């Protein structure tokens, strides 16, 4: 297995990669309207593509919330490649980007545990394993039936202050 993570700048390629991966993850990304919104949304944001040889197996797109906070806008890895360290490598790439660009915190939003979901339980456990902590729950962000858990990670100690 030759896993490569590369930055993508072409908006068309970002859209295609995002669409392909999200469509392959229906238990996490099962709403066509939301998927289309993500695919459009990644176009103007930094984008990391994960490939195994020449096969697309995952991606992450990030966005700037403010001068201190970088957020994982959307991230997906082909389920066949879960639990073998690829997500952890992708998070390391995102942290490196954040450190280089002087962000202090990395944020991610996911489904809160108050709504039962085995897939999102695994997602929350992954984020905890790589260093995120639960921060807050928003009940109106995605609608009453989908409570939004905000998780954060302090990355400011990973670089020196000026």
Keywords:
162 residues; alpha+beta; Aminopeptidase; 7-stranded mixed sheet; 31% helix; globular
Number of domains: 1
Q: What spatial form do the alpha-carbon principal axes imply?
A: globular
Number of strands: 7
Biggest sheet layout = 7 strands, mixed
Top CATH class: Alpha Beta
Mean of residue pLDDT values = 90
Tell me the structural class: alpha+beta
N-to-C terminal Cα separation, in Å?
40 Å
By CATH, the architecture is named: 3-Layer(aba) Sandwich
> What is the helical fraction, as a range of percent?
25-40%
- CATH H-level superfamily title: Gcn5-related N-acetyltransferase (GNAT)
Our count of helices gives 4
Query: Going across the major beta sheet, what is the strand order?
Result: 1-2-3-4-5-7-6
Q: Kindly identify the CATH topology.
A: Aminopeptidase
Detail the poorly predicted runs.
none
Radius of gyration: 15 Å
Strand content: 25-35%
């Amino acid at each position: 297995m030759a896993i490569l993570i590369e930055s993508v700048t072409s908006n068309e390629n970002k859209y295609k990669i995002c669409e392909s991966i999200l469509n392959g993850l229906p238990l996490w990304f099962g709403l066509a309207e939301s998927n289309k919104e993500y695919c459009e949304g990644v176009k103007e944001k930094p984008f990391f593509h994960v490939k195994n040889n020449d096969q697309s197996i995952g991606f992450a797109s990030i966005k700037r919330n403010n001068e201190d906070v970088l957020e994982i806008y959307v991230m997906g890895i082909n389920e066949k490649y879960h639990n073998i360290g690829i997500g952890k490598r992708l998070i390391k790439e995102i942290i490196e980007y954040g450190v280089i660009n002087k962000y202090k915190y990395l944020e991610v939003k996911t489904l809160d545990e108050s709504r039962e979901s085995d897939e999102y339980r695994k997602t929350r456990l992954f984020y905890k394993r790589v260093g995120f902590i639960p921060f807050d729950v928003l009940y109106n962000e995605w609608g009453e039936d989908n409570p939004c858990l905000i998780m954060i990670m302090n990355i400011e100690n990973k670089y020196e202050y000026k």
